[in-house]
Design goal:
proton-transporting ATPase activity, rotational mechanism; 3 helices; about 90% helix; ion transport; ATP synthesis; ATP synthase subunit b; about 180 residues
Length: about 180
C-alpha cells in the first residue's frame, strides 16, 4: 500500500512544509468567517448577553423593591395591629368601668329599695301593733270588766270606773311582763 506521504515524497514536495496556496485560501476563509462572526453573530450574542444581564439586574431590583414594599407593609401591619390591640384594651377597660358603674348603681338602687321596703314594713308593723294593742285593750277591758263583775258580784256598767279598772289591770300586766323580762 502506498501512503499519501510516499506519493508526496515521490513528487518532490516536502510533507512538513505546507502548500502556500492552501494556507492563503484557508487564511482568507478564516478572515471572512471572522468578519461574519464579528459583524453579525457577535452582536447578537452581545445583545442577548446584555438583555440577560439587564433582565437579571432588573429582576434583582424588582425583588429588592418588592422586599422593601413587603417590609413596609409588614411594619404598617404591625403598627395597625398594635393600634388595634391598644384600642381593644381601651374598650375592654371602658366596658369594665361601665360594668362596675352599672353594678354600683344597681347596688345603690337595691339598697334604696330595700330601705324603702323596710321603712314601709316598719310603718305597717307599727300600725298593726297599735291596732292590735287597741283591739286587745278593748277586748281585755271588756273581759276584765266582765270578770271583775263576776268576782265582785255586781255589774260594772260605769264606763269611767271600768276604764280605770282596765287601765290598772293593763298597767299591772305590763309591770309583771317587764319584771319577768329583766330577770
Amino acid at each position: 500500500m502506498v501512503t499519501a506521504a510516499v506519493i508526496l515524497a515521490s513528487e518532490g514536495a516536502n510533507p512538513l512544509l505546507p502548500n502556500w496556496w492552501e494556507v492563503l485560501v484557508t487564511a482568507v476563509a478564516f478572515a471572512v468567517l471572522l468578519f461574519v462572526v464579528k459583524k453579525y453573530i457577535a452582536p447578537i450574542f452581545e445583545k442577548s448577553y446584555t438583555d440577560r444581564v439587564e433582565a437579571i439586574e432588573g429582576g434583582i431590583e424588582k425583588a429588592e423593591e418588592a422586599q422593601a414594599e413587603a417590609n413596609a407593609l409588614l411594619e404598617q401591619y404591625k403598627a395597625q395591629l398594635m393600634e388595634a390591640r391598644t384600642e381593644a384594651n381601651g374598650i375592654r377597660e371602658s366596658a369594665r368601668a361601665e360594668g362596675a358603674q352599672i353594678l354600683a348603681d344597681l347596688k345603690a338602687k337595691a339598697a334604696e329599695e330595700s330601705a324603702r321596703i323596710t321603712a314601709q314594713a316598719q310603718v305597717a308593723i307599727e300600725s298593726e301593733r297599735v291596732a292590735a294593742v287597741n283591739s286587745l285593750r278593748s277586748e281585755v277591758g271588756t273581759l276584765a270588766t266582765a270578770l271583775a263583775g263576776k268576782i265582785v258580784g255586781e255589774a260594772l256598767d260605769d264606763d269611767a270606773r271600768s276604764n280605770r279598772v282596765v287601765e290598772r289591770f293593763l298597767a299591772d300586766l305590763e309591770n309583771q311582763s317587764n319584771a319577768g323580762a329583766t330577770k
